[in-house]
Each structure stands twice: as structure tokens, then as C-alpha cells.
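Re: that chain you flagged

S.,

Sorry for the slow reply, it's been a week of failed gels. I finally had a moment to sit down with the sequence you sent. For the record, here it is as I used it:
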Amino acid sequence: MGVAGVSGKFLGLPQFVVKEGSLVPSGRIFLRGREAVHLKGARRLREGELVRVADGTGRVVVAQIEEISRETVQLQVVHDLGSHDDLIPCTFLLPLIRRERFETALARLSEMGVAVVQPVITKRSRFSGNHAERLEKRLGRWQNICLESLKQSRGFKATMVRRPKVLREALKNLSGVGERIALFASERGRGLLDMLETTYAIFPCVVAIGPEGGFEPEEKELLMSKDFNPVGLGSRILRSETAAIYLGALLSEIFLRKRLRP
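Prediction finished late last night. Pasting the C-alpha cells below so you have them in one place:
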């Protein structure tokens, strides 16, 4: 039975997240901190109700609330949904634009199940390579955003966020990729669907999204030298986060159709 069949029966249950390694196929597990507060407060769940619990690695169980105390929630596992990789095999090279807009794109891509988001420092980014160490400190917040999206989407596996890199470094070690896609504003007459008409093995893929104002000429040359196919998105210029969300949704639909095709 596929992931959809395994989780469909329990899809409507609220989902919570625990630390990696905390899940057990049977027995008791505990929610603490923000997750316990969320269950008791925003969700207003009660003893006896069922919930889903994930650890972000692909493991999900269904558990019954046994006891709610001031600081913890005790759960009893009643069904092990197993371990599944339900992510779209695609890496998004997402430019470091304004913080709230970057995090909006990250959250939406995570909800859709994009496998990897690689934050990229471009010529027009608000940060230079000298700020890479400072940006690494945001990794914890970014991964928490992915876990929150996993809760929202009732997914199995959380999106991975890599350490920020300058574009040239991010383009290294792309072997084994089925398709390489670069979004250029100058390619408004040729969209992703046009390109896919002649593409047979799109996944796994890499998608490069430009910053506000687009890639600089030397960055375009670099992407082309790495065999990226330039595409556009309709007749309008979109913000970077809008373009990322649009492409993520489109690739999600394409991947689902390929996976369900007999």
C-alpha cells in the first residue's frame, strides 16, 4: 500500500512533532514544550482523542492521548504508520531575499514536500559571502519552519534546509540530477510546461530561483555552463518567493501524476 493509502485513514488527525529518535512502534511517547502547549491550547484536545506524531525523518505513528498534565502530554501508540519518504525529489536554490519573504517561500515549499532547500547568496542578495557564518545561525529557525509545515501538511518527512552558500558553491556536486531548471525573467515566452514536453526524466531535479531583479549576467552564464535550462513564468514578473511557490506547486502536481501513473 502506498503512502496515500497508509495515511489516508488517519489524514484528518492533528499532527505533532517530536525529536528524532523519540518515536516507538508501540508503547508510550510524550509531548513537551511547545507541542504540549499547542495540543492543550490551540487544538484543545482531550484525553481519549487520537493524534498523529512524526519525528521529521519519515516515521509517523497514531497515538491516543492518555494523560494531560501541566507540562507534558502522555500518549499511547495505537498504530504505526511506518517510515515513508513522501518528498518531491527536487532541490530548490532559493535566494536570500528579505527574511520574511524567504521564510514564506520556505514554509510553502515545505508544505508541498520539496526535498531540499539550498539558501543561495547571489550578487543581488542582501548578504555577501562574509555573512555566511551569521546566516548559518538561522538554520535552526529554518528547520523549525519545515517541521511546522510538516505538522500542517500531515507529511511524513520534513524538508531539509542546507547551510547558505554562494551560487558557485551551491552548483557543485549536482551529479545524478534528472533536470536542471533556471528561472530567467528574459524567458517569459518559454514556460516550464513547454520544456517538459521534450523532457522524459525530470526527477530528481534542481530549480534555481533568481533574487529580486534577477540573476546577474555572469550568474546566468554560470548556470548555463552547468547545463541549466532557462524557463519563464507567463507574461508577468513575479517576486522571487511567488515564483518559487508557483514552481513548487507545479512540480508537486507533475511528481504526483508520475507516481500514480501505472
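What I noticed first: The longest strand covers residues 72-83.

Talk soon,
D.
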